Amino acid sequence: MGGKSYYCDYCCCYMKNDLNVRKLHNAGASHTAAKATYLRRFEDPRKILAAERNKRPCKRFFAGYCRFEQLCNFRHYTDKQMEQLEKIVIQLKKKTSKKQRNPQKTKRNLPPSLQPLDLTQLKQTNWDLSWG
């Protein structure tokens, strides 16, 4: 298969561009943990907080290294990080509650083509106009 290499974005490593090599790599524990860590950045903080509250701290992680990383059944967040996560969740709740209070505010800023139809103006329209 020539000199081309395959680069794994999750693990930041190069490997032989061969189907069997890639399958073996993707099935490995280190790749699965790296992928879970990467995708965790895009999860909802409320979901992360709910899951992490129920876990006990990981002794291996705080001792230096846990090979399971994000797939571990124990918490990898310090108490300070948990407090920061709680603050983020509280801020998100405040933002969503403000959006729900003023639903009409978003309609004012829309261009005319995207605003909802006013049926009273539609009834007053003269449809007998000739075009062209």
Automatic annotation (TrEMBL):
Renumbered zinc finger spans (C3H1-type): 52-79
All residue ranges annotated as the C3H1-type domain in the record: 52-79
InterPro entries (alphabetical): U1-CZ_Znf_C2H2, Znf_C2H2_sf, Znf_CCCH
Region of interest (Disordered), residue spans: 94-115
Compositionally biased spans, kind Basic residues: 94-108
Entry annotated with the keyword Lipid metabolism: no
Pfam (any one): zf-U1
GO-annotated cellular components: U12-type spliceosomal complex
Domain of life: Eukaryota
Keywords of the record: Metal-binding, Zinc, Zinc-finger
One MF term in the entry's GO annotations: zinc ion binding
Keyword Isomerase carried by entry: no
PANTHER family reported for this sequence: NUCLEASE-RELATED, ZINC FINGER MATRIN-TYPE PROTEIN 5
Name the UniProt record assigns to this protein: C3H1-type domain-containing protein
